[in-house]
Amino acid sequence: MNGKVHAKEIKVNNSIWPDYVFQSSYNLMPLNKVEAFIKTNGHLPEVPSAKEVGEKGIEVGANQALLLKKIEELTLHIIELEKRIAVQEGKSGKRSRR
Asked: With contact defined as beta carbons under 8 Å apart, do 29 and 73 qualify?
């Protein structure tokens, strides 16, 4: 079917939610590998390409979980970068203006 959906709310039940990203056993892809993947494929790892979405569509609940996973991964990268900056500021004697 090809049409539009208009609703005030859509509820999707999803039993797989990406909180596992915060487990110590989770292997976070290093940013240099993410960059290499993007340069080669033109999209984020695990995220379908525009062509694939155009041809096959996308399941809304699974996509929401995937987007949250990517946000959580970005958050972990930012935390790591902030720690590195703090170490560098400590070595150089600079202090944050926050």
From this structure: yes
